[in-house]
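Hello Y.,

Per our agreement to keep a running log of every chain we model this quarter, I'm adding this entry. I've kept the format consistent with earlier entries: sequence first, then predicted structure.
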Amino acid sequence: MSSYKPKKEHRFSFGLWTTANRGRDPFGEETRSRLDPITNIKELGKRNVYGFNFHDDDLIPFGASLQLRNKIIKDTKRAMKDYNIVCAMATTNLFYHRVFKDGAFTSHDPRVRAFALQKVMKNMDLGAELGASVYVFWGGREGTEVDASKTPEESIKRYRECMNYLCAYADKNGYDFKFAIEPKPNEPRGDIFLATAGHVLAFINTLDDPERVGVNPEIEHSRMAGLNTYHDFAQCMEAGKLYHVDLGAQKPNRFDQDLRFGSEDLKETFFVVKLLEDNGWAGTRNFDEHPYRSEDEKGVWDFVEGSMRTYLILWEKVRQFNSDKKIQQILKDLHNTDPRLEGLMRRFTPEGAKQLQQHAFDPMALSKKRLPYEELDQRTQELLMGVI
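Predicted structure for the entry above:
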């Protein structure tokens, strides 16, 4: 992989909102012109990107006529065919329009909740038509600044009702979507419901169709909460609920920076790549991030190419880690096995518990086992820095 050139089989994807980002922030207006979605899809396809993702309003302007909608859909399908790019994921914009200023699924107003369901169902129809396999739900406005304004238990109940409704809608229409809920602790709301991967995992178990629903953890959102993204991704994967991933970069405990993948905390990012590749992640390596506000249009495509290149470089580093004799010997020495004790602990039985209670342990002897984590971490660090 010395050239680090992306290929379709690497399954990289980008949201249309990432490359179409115009550099606007709360303190300044746009610094780039709007990139229309069809050109966006074509340019991604030219760079061997496997798939694109879209919010409904990314592809079809809010309130567009049926004639315009049909034309855009036709042009999208043509671009997908001509540039060999798939629609990998769809989602709904339930945060931008002022109607959602106090939530969509958790709004006090049943008319707003009903409109949100309508908007999602229409876009699910389009996502299915374009071949999306994953449908993501990010509740950007599902939260509060004023705790007296909403009770969390009522809001979560409403959230659940909407998710159950949409699961049933997908089932009725034969849509084979995997639903993935995307956690975020705050921003744009002061506090957002389902703030972390753990919150989402607990919530899923309360749904009517928990098998359909998983998690879409995002590097930036985990770091905003001061959490280890590698651990977040791993817990979702171990639970069989890692249905989609969002890759990017973020300084811990800041606003949502959406920086280019790998540009912050390279070691943690390395272990995210290692997790995905060592476990044969079958989903897309999706980038949800924004080019720097200082960039022009060329910089947008530098950003796209840089994200994929960094992933491929880190993937190469994973191979080096897995074949490094010193690292692998340390790991082998660390991992003890004791088939008899492991068998007793695997599942409770009265007889097994009795044997475990009677087993003679020597805690002082156990405590003397050397754990060379300094050496392991230094070796990993030098590998990432290209010294070994």
